[in-house]
## 1
Amino acid sequence: MDVRIIAATNRNLEGAVAEGQFREDLYYRLNVVPIYLPPLRERTEDIPPLVGHFLSRFNAENGKRVKLSSAAMDLIMGYSWPGNVRELENCVERMVVMAEREVISPEEVPLPYGHLTSLPSALPSPLPQEKAPPLTQTLEELERKRIEEALKRCGGVQARAARLLGITQRQIGYKIKKFGIELET
């Protein structure tokens, strides 16, 4: 019989072995091919495809066609995910199950505000007394910035940037043209 065991932990086993808290022989049996997977907060580019996968799965299970607004996705991208992929999966499932409309808005994303790492503007806050810029201008600036960051991260490859953002190549091409984003050649 050919058996392979895959074990995962969030603990420092080398340190535990050194302190006598983990059996050394077991450590060496398990530590054949170590794989380090950084936490979700350190690989935010994985969030949109994971959200897409979970949305598809939970929509099928619940007979729904729920989607996320771009502002809701921005909020999800700015969360630190201390519970990693399992927490993200539970969050998406909760949104699909509880959704009353087809498009989820940021207010419907069940996240505690204490773990937001960025995008504080996505949080509800009182508007300043001075005249605020129109909402469409603010959203367009945020969208342009996200597209530019994705293109930079993907070396200017539109197809990869589109996948990273969870949109189609056609959509990113349209937005590049709309915002006049200059591509590096």
## 2
Amino acid sequence: MGGKKKLSLKQMERMQAKKDEEEKKKKEKAAAPREKKPSGVVPPNPKDGKILSEIKKMHVLTPYSVASRFNIRISAAKDFLEQLEEDGVVQLVSGNHDIKIYKTLD
């Protein structure tokens, strides 16, 4: 009556081959783990020419984008952007208490 049908030999071979490939891929992924570096607390120097050229390449500046680009914490990126605004490198476009959006001045 009911129940699962018995698979043919060819179908069982395909399933076994697929399972072996998946296990092989899992082992390859597990063999090469990525190293996580801790985020820096100290923001980069806002007067450095190399840093300023990187900032000017970015169209929109948010704390998250700066933090991910320079590998620093978001709180440090917020302070860094405020410092750049005081120096006149960037301008505040929009924002609220959670996030602020800046753009570079040409």
## 3
Amino acid sequence: MKLISQMGHVALRTPDLEASVRHAIDILGLREVERSGGTVFLTCGRNHHDLQLIASDQAAVDHFSLEATSDSAFDEILARLEREGVRIAAKTPQEPGLSRALRFVTPDGHTVEVYAGMAKDQPATYNTVGIRPRKFAHTTIAVPDIAASENFFCKVLGFIPSDRMYVRADGGTKDVAVWMRCNPDHHGLALIAGAAGLRHCAWELENFSYLAVLGDHLASNGIKLEWGPGRHGPGNNLYTYHRDPAGNVHEHMADIERIYDDSFLGRSWELKPETLNLWGGPEPSAEYRSRYLRVAALP
């Protein structure tokens, strides 16, 4: 049984809620749907929300969400979580727009929400000055134990590894990243070795020309790219990265590889500049490399 149909949304904590909302609307091209207390829900299409911004004293990921393929898949996920002894934080929706939802804490310390049925009651089109994405694409998180986290997401939620990246160490190799899929998109979730936390969230654009428009739009708003444009090896997707006012990193991507064979369990790539960018250069900014790309010392 397929358990997860697609990535849902990401919820980010921010110390300056209004600055983050302005960025989401004016840069990311999202649309505000509603507010509840110190939380703002935004969307890029018909979904009730694709991004949730939460007022907090520091920037952090609050949770990310996954959409179950059906009510029966939702029930199966709950059963698997209980069998594995996973701490379930809530068994009912904690936010508007969801029919059924649960939240649990992964063994690596991340809060994940699984839902079945999100309201698709928002306008399909709307005016925006930002560069509106096609959809929320994926979440990349850091985890202290790549193998254990990969096993959890595959065993309990049915993710399939698409690619992995390794470094040479002690006469052998050591995995430092894995990209996993829940549908034909090359990855909806990526794990990178490191202290638990968000590395970036990603938005899918139509094609490369939209990345160029985004770059001009960022520049006109005084925002510099942290990395890109380029094309990743794993996923084969075009990319750019920039930071929002809270310091969270947003990737914009297009032309991602799609895999329709569930028996394909991925390739292995060595961590080196040409793996991260098949085109070669431009290099990530020094701050991005030190704060967000800490998988290993790059050559």
## 4
Amino acid sequence: METIKKEELKKILVSITATMEKTKEELIALDAAMGDGDLGLTMCKGFQTVTAEIDKINEPDMGNLIMKLGMKMNSEVPSTMGTLVSTCFIKGGLKAKGKTELHLADLVEMGRAAVQGVMERGQSKVGDKTMLDALHPAVEALAVAAEAGKSLAGAQQSAYQAAVEGVEKTKIMKSVHGRAAYYSENSIGRQDPGATAMMYIIKGIANACAKANSTL
């Protein structure tokens, strides 16, 4: 897999959904420690919804398709994390409008648009102990991999490793947004649930790309 069309996108969504289902209880536990504990349920429902929805959309334009999936997720899981993941779909999709297939360079551009969208929507920045602390390093690792001429699968693996490192760094950060902000200094030492969920989204993407390569 070196390009992503609708069929490949469906496989990616299936992979993300499977990853979310496997990690649901972990995400619930992380979120319950400093939030309302529904993160695992939200992410499972959101990705189950868009995975089912993609077959109902007759749209050759990958940008329009991804934006429609984002809007569907937003309507089905109107939580903070659901809204921010939807923002990633919509802002990323805008950068893909007019394309019938996506290359690695397109994914970098879409990822950077997603980062900017989350910063604007969540009024947050890298270092605030949010999903950005996994998403931003992953996108930048994707860009470095693209510049180095890596395969799509190799680039996505690099993105996942960067996300893992980003999540680890959230343990030394203090929460400043949402319910977790009430814990202030006491949030230090805990990894951020949102960043963890984003890390698993990226893992799902990397797994799908690796699986596609292994079957070639």
